[in-house]
Amino acid sequence: MVLSPAQNQTDLLRHHSDVSLSRSFTDHRTLRKSRHSRSFSSNTSDDDDASVPLAGPPSLPLTPYTNQVGGHASFLRFSERALLKPLDPVEKMFYEQVESMHPELKPFMASYLGIVNSSLYGKTQQFLLLQDLTEGMKYPCILDLKMGTRQHGVNSTPAKKISQEKKCERSTSKKLGVRICGMQVYKRDTGKYTFLDKYVGRQIHAANFKQNLLSFLDNGSHFLVGYIPKVIANLRRLYKVVEGMQTYRFYASSLLIVYDG
User: Fold this and answer.
1) Tens of pLDDT along 132-171?
2) Beta-bridge partners for 256
3) Are 106 and 98 in contact (CB under 8 A)?
4) pLDDT at 239
5) 54 vs 183, which has greater pLDDT?
């Protein structure tokens, strides 16, 4: 949930002069596309003339994505308007199903732009290419909330199930159905950010959860209460959409709230 206008998919792909990825194109220097993926990969046929030298793929070093406040996998910067997240097959399938079957959910999600293959030392790794929700923000303030009283999926191992149940019992997930997994807030009075990670979030109790939640809207000078009505309105719309998806169950889903401080 972004408290600022989002860019469309075309714009996100248009500006990639700062690509942090090793890319190679087909013989015709075209970008292969499918309905749900845009794969950057090398493709040399056996009929190529060996006497003609082929230029190697352009390469720039991948850089960390600095505005990540939660999650297990580390994001990487792809361009000014898009980022890379290590591919998870289940997550990929969900994005594709939303594209084709549940477009009503898309306004509440980062735009899914496809799949990127990155090669490093002969090893290929796949990434989801996603919209950077903080694009254009000078001081992005981000809140990552883990939703639900249950954090394990139906295919989790017994050990994973036990681990997740303990985390829920020891945090606000069990009682409130939500816990803070990460936060960064820009303080105008100091000109610096304050941070809260998932380990601190697990120590927050129901009694002080509200206070910690409000700190997300504290810019050091005053509380940005003007954002509250918009957040509530968006949450109500999201609730109606999810409520209508009767064949889905959302486990360990994150609710991301972003504004420019």
Assistant:
1) 999 999 999 999 999 999 888 788 899 988 988 888 988 9
2) 144
3) yes
4) 94
5) 183
Q: Are 1 and 256 in contact (CB under 8 A)?
A: yes
**What is the DSSP track for 101-164?**
H-GGGGGGSPPEEEEEEEEETTEEEEEEEEE-TTTT-SSEEEEEEEESS----TT--HHHHHHH
CA distance 25 to 116: 12
Q: What confidence score (pLDDT) does residue 144 get?
A: 95
Query: Which is more confidently placed, 56 or 101?
Result: 101
- Per the model's pLDDT, the better-predicted residue between 259 and 14 turns out to be 259
Query: Which has the closest alpha carbon to 112: 126, 134, 132?
Result: 132
Paired tokens of 256: 């991301």
CB atoms within 10 A of CB 125: 13
Query: Residue 25 above 50 pLDDT?
Result: no
User: According to the model, what pLDDT value does residue 2 have?
Assistant: 54
